[in-house]
Design brief:
With 262 residues, the chain is α+β, with helices and mostly antiparallel strands. The chain has one domain. The protein has 6 helices and 12 strands. It has a 12-stranded mixed sheet with strand order 7-8-9-10-11-1-2-3-4-5-6-12.
């Protein structure tokens, strides 16, 4: 499960009718909670579809988000089959394990600016906090806190398309990580999805991200989380390019076996 969660986090793009197709390349890093990893890869956008590719152990792991069809596909280049998730049903099930009564979510300007690869970036501070269960066990409540600085660039290729995709997906209750990891950490998945929604409202791409993910609880849970420590998640956009992308890029190959997941 740690490997699944690591891949899910690293494959995430941390940023965002006549819209262009867009390719965004970035580097990512996750450390903490028994996980560590660094990798780079492209994210492709075409309307309400997104594809991410990351290379792990010589294999390419692909995740395809088809928001209109409410399907998520996950597969790697090592075998000719793909897992298929019904995201409408999954989002509804995930919501049962999240308590939004004390939900806090904000991305606020911090007054800082800097140049990133020739682009003018504005600084923002992220603070998202909510309560959820662990593996659906109501007696194992935890508080998930996501906080840290991000640097957003507006007006670059792909910004409008990225924001449009995340607004649409978030409004349908989507998460942007592997559902298997989200089942054990629903609060973390929801917090990251809410961050995307907030970035989309600002209207740019997060070119740099430096976040801390903290888990806290009471009683036995406090002991567990103290041992696990916090997780850091960083990302840096290398390039954004607009240009036509083939429809076939946003579906598993035709000869792949499809495994329906719940």
């Amino acid at each position: 499960m740690k490997r699944v969660m690591l891949v899910a986090l690293l494959s995430l793009p941390l940023s965002p009718a006549a819209y262009s197709d867009v390719t965004i390349t970035q580097s990512n890093s996750v450390k903490g909670m028994g996980m560590t990893g660094d990798m780079s890869g492209p994210t492709y956008l075409k309307g309400n579809k997104m594809r991410t590719d990351v290379v792990i152990g010589g294999k390419t792991r692909t995740t395809i988000f088809d928001v209109d069809a409410q399907k998520m596909y996950i597969f790697d280049s090592g075998k000719k089959e793909a897992d298929v998730w019904d995201m409408a049903a999954f989002s509804e099930e995930l919501a049962k394990n999240i308590d939004l009564s004390d939900f806090k979510a904000s991305i606020t300007p911090n007054g800082q600016t800097k140049e990133i690869d020739g682009h003018h970036a504005m600084g923002y501070d992220v603070l998202i906090s909510l309560e959820s269960t662990m593996n659906g066990n109501k007696s194992m409540m935890m508080t998930v806190t996501l906080e840290g600085p991000i640097w957003i660039v507006k007006g670059v290729p792909g910004a409008a398309e990225y924001c449009r995709f995340y607004r649409t997906a978030a409004n349908k209750g989507w998460i942007f990580s592997d559902p298997r990891a989200a089942k054990s950490q629903p609060g973390q998945a929801k917090a990251i999805a809410e961050m995307y929604r907030k970035i989309a409202e600002i209207g740019g791409i997060a070119y740099e991200v430096d976040l801390q993910i903290k888990l806290s609880g009471t009683g036995p849970m406090a002991v567990i989380f103290a041992k696990m420590g916090n997780m850091s998640m960083t990302s840096h956009v290398i390039s954004t390019v607009d240009g036509a992308l083939a429809d076939t890029l946003f579906a598993p190959p035709a000869d792949y076996k499809l495994n329906q997941k719940k």
